[in-house]
Write a structure and sequence with these properties.
The protein is mainly alpha-helical. 79% of the residues lie in helices and 0% in strands. The chain contains 16 helices and no strands. Residues 10-392 form the Major facilitator superfamily (MFS) profile domain.
């Protein structure tokens, strides 16, 4: 491993590959009504495919990450792309809702193997501030995926039916195979790394045994849960509670993406001057401040133009958090990078998915939703304080 920077072309290739998972989550959202009509099911049943995708994505990362440490990044990455391409093609020809749900689980399994391989490959090459910069550049591109995916899905629907969307996703994965072999894996040995044979459980036990690193797992899970809760209820918040039209909702939702990109850009600039942990703490405080403002605005029953800036601050801060959290966490694992990346991704994805699902059991009003987000922000604040204590501040990211 080296601390040098890596070519920009490799950074772009990694980011485009990492986009596969979030892009797959949102591209078919505009097709929900047509899928429901085509398969003669309710919208609620189609919505279930999102939850299945999220939980399968979390599980697959746990398996794929440890396997990449044992048999090699190349094998896991390519296998994931092939699995994803075949599953997407199967969904495109799905004759029933059951087949679609099984296909979504298989699709997520392949996507999980892909997205867990890329951070591990980054950790194999570089560390410290350089790793944080790379994750931030990749994050800038990956953040765009959820914002543009529904629009691309709508464009595909204009050309054909919902089957075309999954056919396009299959083609996307197929095109990523030569990109991966020729760019991402160009200098990666064909054979897996020579490591001591360990079970998956042993590898994850070793990762979890590093106490300072566990702090960043909790940190990422809590802050990402805030965003997942917002995504789950965004339509309810803006369209039902505040009464916005569909076009207004799109603009208000896009404002959060724009703020995330702004934080991401600022993060990349600051990484040349400050340590990752310092930027992370500031961004976390911004998110906590935004959540506190949301509670006050909701209790005061102020209009949407007061609500929007607070939500933009709360969600936008994620643009400077995830890349630094990932870099700080992976810094502890020069050898079990695949297992560490898998545990990181699976933990925050699984916890956020579970919490966002549980919030649907709360009373369906704005205050309940905002208090759930504030509770996650409170956990982030506690973790932030722990990161500043002498016993928990042994962060290896370069200062």
């Amino acid at each position: 491993m080296t601390t040098r920077s890596i070519p920009f072309s490799l950074t772009i290739a990694m980011a485009v590959t990492m986009m596969l998972a979030p892009f797959s989550m949102d591209t078919y959202l505009p097709a929900f009504p047509s899928i429901a009509a085509s398969l003669d099911v309710s919208l609620a049943e189609v919505s279930r495919s999102v939850s299945i995708y999220i939980f399968a994505l979390a599980l697959s990362q746990l398996i794929g990450g440890a396997l990449s440490d044992q048999i090699g990044r190349r094998q896991v990455l390519i296998a994931g792309l092939v699995m994803y391409a075949i599953a997407s093609l199967g969904i495109a020809f799905a004759p029933s809702m059951f087949t679609l749900l099984v296909g979504r689980a298989c699709q997520a399994f392949g996507a999980g193997w892909v997205v867990v391989s890329v951070p591990a490959l980054v950790r194999d090459r570089i560390s410290g501030q350089e790793a944080a910069k790379l994750f931030s550049i990749m994050g800038f591109i990956v953040v765009l995926a959820p914002g543009i995916a529904p629009s691309i899905g709508s464009a595909i629907l204009a050309l054909g039916n919902w089957h075309y969307i999954f056919g396009a996703l299959s083609i996307y994965a197929v095109l990523l195979i030569p990109l991966s072999t020729q760019v991402i894996l160009k200098d990666v040995p064909r054979r897996g790394p020579v490591t001591q044979k360990k079970s998956l459980l042993t590898r994850y036990r070793e990762v979890l045994a590093v106490r300072p690193a566990r702090l960043f797992l909790i940190w990422q899970a809590s802050c990402f849960s805030i965003m997942m809760i917002f995504i789950t209820f965004a339509s309810f918040i803006y369209q039902e509670h505040f009464g916005l039209s569909e076009s207004q909702f799109s603009l208000f939702f896009a404002a959060n993406i724009a703020t995330m990109l702004t934080f991401n850009t600022a993060n990349r600039w600051l990484l040349s001057r400050w340590a990752s942990i310092k930027i992370l703490r500031i961004a976390t405080l911004c998110q906590i401040a935004g959540a506190a403002l949301l509670v006050g605005i909701t209790l005061a029953d102020l209009n949407v133009y007061f609500f929007l800036p607070a939500m933009m601050l709360t969600i936008g801060a994620m643009g400077a958090m995830t890349s630094n959290l990932q870099a700080c966490f992976l810094e502890f694992f020069p050898h079990n990078g695949g297992a560490a990346a898998a545990l990181f991704g699976a933990t925050y994805t699984g916890v956020a998915g579970l919490l966002s699902a549980l919030t649907t059991l709360l009373p369906q009003n704005l205050l309940s939703i905002i208090l759930a987000m504030a509770a996650c922000a409170a956990v982030s604040f506690i973790v932030l304080l722990r990161s500043m204590s002498p016993s928990e501040s042994k962060v290896a990211v370069a200062t």
